[in-house]
Structure formats: structure tokens, C-alpha cells
Amino acid sequence: MKSNELISEIQWDRVPLVAGQNDARAWLGFQACRGLALNTLDAYGRNLERYLRFLSKCDKQPHAIGQETVGAYLRDLVKPSATPEEPVIRMANATIQQHLAALRMFYDFLVEEGRCTRNPYRQGVGRSSRSLVRREHKLPSIPTEEEWCRVLSEAAKEPIRNRLMLAMSYDAGLRREELCLLETRDIDPSRRTIRVRAETTKNRRARVLPYSVTTDELYGQYLEHRRTLSRERGRLFLSQSPRNRAEPVSIWTWSKIVNGIAKRAGAAGFTPHTLRHLCLTDLARADWDIHEIAIFAGHRSIETTMIYVHLSARDLAAKFNATMTQLHKQRLETMGRLFQ
Asked: How far is CA 79 from CA 27, 48, 72, 146, 230, in A?
């Protein structure tokens, strides 16, 4: 996807303060020119929008703040104050870290442009640089078998497009952007494979992934339905609403669909990314090699893939079983010697 196309994909109406502030708009536009994933651009925009809204309440400009303002904003992130208009929404630690990363990049940009002399959100230099808020390391949440069955039961009531999107997302462990940006040319039904193009991925690494027989049947049904919307090649998943008929399904629309399914199923915390977490965890449970899972997931670092091995408890279970077997054997031998 070209950089100008990415800039046009930014939902400026969702971030009016960013759109109206020259430095903020220039920075977000620059990030789009870097070819970042749409989901990343959306997160950067929302994070900067929240920050600018806070500065507006304090009557401050981004290039003219001190440590007192930084401290007040950190306090607002960790323990936000409630107002009648804005109820308290507590951020997860990972969200706070993502938020601060965006601000560090924004102020690096302001320093480079000569708008600031220093970055107030960056402490230390290089490897000695540290986060302003202590980082917590938590494993991703995956649904229980009961929750998964309820999600599938609710998903079965959805239109064929939504069922196929959910099935492909789980089968291939796709990120939200990778799923929504799939095109008709990316699917090879003769081999039952999905080609994830480099420009649609988070780290710009292409990969080819298999999908199941069940998903293949759904794909055939969906193609028949898609022809009623459009016979043109291009984006695979199209809207069927009267307002956006035959337009590509956006990542935000897909999130609303999954959130609706999760709410009806009573599966708290189930999001589009949960399908990826579940897929990779299941691969680890099935004793896939760590490097195989990394290639499948498109991870740049094995450390990222290790999360799913830990989540599956595969290594711990193997060690526990081996230890208990040896311990049981020793107890029997001791009992045999004493009872003879």
C-alpha cells in the first residue's frame, strides 16, 4: 500500500485535535509515510488525541511543558479522574506503555524539527533508557473451552462473511489488519492457502499460511454471496450494508462485530486478537517447534513466540509429569524396601 493511500486511511474525524494541531498532524502523517500498519496508526492517533485533550484542559502546548505537566499526565494515565462527561476508564499496563511509546516518538519528532530542546518523556539514553511507568509482563488472555464454544455458537448466527472472517482469523492466526486487507488474489483454494502480503503485516514480512477444510467450505459459500455485491477483484471482505455496500470492511467494523459476538457469548475480554492468541497457543500445545510457530505467526523475535509456549504451559507440564513419574517410582521403591 502506498504512503499517500495510508495517509488517506487515517481516520482524521476520530482525532480532531490531532488533525487541527500542525505538529501533531505532521507527525502522524509522517508515521503513515513510514508504511506502518493501519492498526498502529490508529493507536498512535488515539494516544496523541488523548494527550492533546489533557493539555487543552491544562491550557498547555506540547512544545511548552515541564516535568510537572508530565507528572500530572502520568498520574492521569495510571489513575484517571472521573467526570460526569468522562467516566473512569483504567488502562492496562501494556496500553499505558504503548501510549508512552507514542509520546516519546512524538517528542523525538518535535526535537528534530526544532520545536523542543529535549524530550520530556524520554529518560536516559540508549539501553539505559527506562520507562516512566514500571512495565508489567502479563500473558495474553485466551478463552476457556466453555467460552470458546459459546463464542462459536453465537458466531454461527452471523452472516457467512463474518463466519468466514472468524474462521480464517483463527486458522491462520491473522492480525486484524492482515485479515481485513486480504484480497481475492491472496487466496489459493487449490492448495487451501492464504498469502499475507508484506505491506499488510506489522513487521513487513510476507508469509503463506494454510486454512482448514471447514474454512474452505465457508469460503466457497462466501464467494457466491460476494458476487451479489461485486464481481470486481480486490478486497475479499465487502460490506453489505446499504450505506457502504460493496465497500471494504474496515478493521473498526470487524472489531465491532467480534465485540458484539463476545458480548452475546458472555466472553469478557474476547477481541479480534484473541483469535490469534488462541491459534498460536494451540500450536504450542500441539508441540510445534518454537521456530515453526514464529514463522507461522510472522514474528521477528523468538521471545515474542515464547509467550505462547508459556501460555500453553507445555514445557512446565512436560517437566512436571517427568518429575512426578520419577518421584512416584522412588516412593514405590522405598515402600518396597521397607515393607519386605
From this structure: 27, 18, 10, 34, 49
Asked whether residue 179 carries a pLDDT value surpassing 70, the answer given is: yes
d(CA 137, CA 276): 19
- Hey, which CATH number is domain 3-128, 3.40.50.150, 3.90.550.10, 3.30.70.260, 1.10.150.130? 1.10.150.130
CATH number corresponding to 151-314: 1.10.443.10
**How far is the C-alpha of 58 from the C-alpha of 52, rounded, in Å?**
10
Intra-chain end-to-end CA distance of the chain, in Å: 78
Q: Per residue in 235-282, pLDDT tens? A: 999 999 888 899 999 999 999 999 999 999 999 889 999 999 999 989
**Which residues, 6 or more positions from 108, have their beta carbon under 8 angstroms from its beta carbon?**
119, 122
